[in-house]
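Please describe our next protein:
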Amino acid sequence: MRLCYLYLTEDITSHQKQIDATARRIGISPDKLIQYMKPIVNITDVYVPWLLKQIKQKNIRLPEDSDRVIETLSEFDKYRQRLPYSDISQYRTIHDLEEAIDELLERDDTRAAEKERAILSHGVEKYRESANYSIYEITTKDACLHFAAGTRWCISDSEVASGYLKDYGELYTIFRKKGDNLIKYGLYTPDFRQVTDLRDKSLEVDEELAILMEPDESQREWVVNYAMYVLEDRYKPAEEKLLSEPDASMALEYAQKAVGGRWPEGENIIKQEPIVAYAYAHMVSKGRWKNAEPNIIKNPHVAYLYARDVIRGRWLEAEPIMLEDMSTAISYARDVIGGRWPELESVILHSQEDQDDAFVAAQYAGEVIKGVWPEAERIIMLDPDAAYIYARDIIRERFPEAEPTILKDLHVASRYAGDVIGDRWEALEEKLLKVEDIATTYNYTLDVVGGRWPEAEHILRKDPDIWKGYTNFVYAHYPRQLYL
């Protein structure tokens, strides 16, 4: 769906009194109300008072209804000359306006019914029929484009339609029966992941239509999706499929969207995957799930999430596992323990002392200690980037002992000069002039030297684009300096 976003085309302050009154009525500041209104499409001097009235009467809630209002006003602009009233103020509520638009679209569909029937022999076959509905199977791009006309379905785009048919083989379009006419009503994909009305919103499915849409039970995913997205309720064939062909993630989604809570029969499947078991405990059962903890504890990061979001406190049994993953252990110390963790510090300080350990030590100092960690500085200075970050964010001054290491990475050293030293760094300049790293020399010149650096110009000249950038920078910022 493509929307044309426009901003307020008038001086909205001309409605300041109405804005102030509306803001008071709904309990927000006038500035906040204006902020909420700005994304609304095609606002004019006529629409602003009507929109404020709808907000004041609580027919519209912003920002939640922004998309709905955008769509409705876009359609009003498109069809206003064919609607009962072309003056928007004649519509008492946004619901009245939406009903008028829907009635117009339905009349259009009725008049187009003969055209709908005419194409049924071109890439379309009748799939199923009931007293009040007919479902047709679409198998060609031309049929997609025809039936999508006048809707917000993405298959109105030729490439998208081809993509859907390539992925699914067919799509299904639903018609309501009205006398001898077929009124276009909805569209769905074979896997039921998309079941939409003409506005590309979720389709309202009554019992008769739900029965008509019932899938072939051979495809587990389709059967389960039918329960979740069409019925939005429990469905015995879906549960039988899930129990006979276990899938932890699908079982979790079924519990959330079809059962609407705990699904005891599926818990043995769900608990097999640590991340899924955690999500079930956190979002469905909303409490500790003792039976799943032996599986959850197998994954350090998931164990941390479980402690943070479900237990909401330390999980002593899982701490040895979390100590096997330094990033997770730091997150656990920061978010669950809420401070220093001696056991983790011991692991860090007695590590093999490589570059990865340097980052871990710097991260722990910054996120958990939130200050200097002298005991770990011998490890931190093993890696140029870790030492630079520690100096910039924690020490907030030069880190002399680490500078020999920082100089091993000229790019990091350039940032260290700019962000920590805040001035030119003679030791780095000597290296840059010797090594002739063109990109780093250029960045150092612009960010730290801040002007001409004659000694480095023979290096910068080697790359035409960099030389042009350098000369433009010097001339723009220091026009009195010699232009090269």
The radius of gyration is 32 Å.
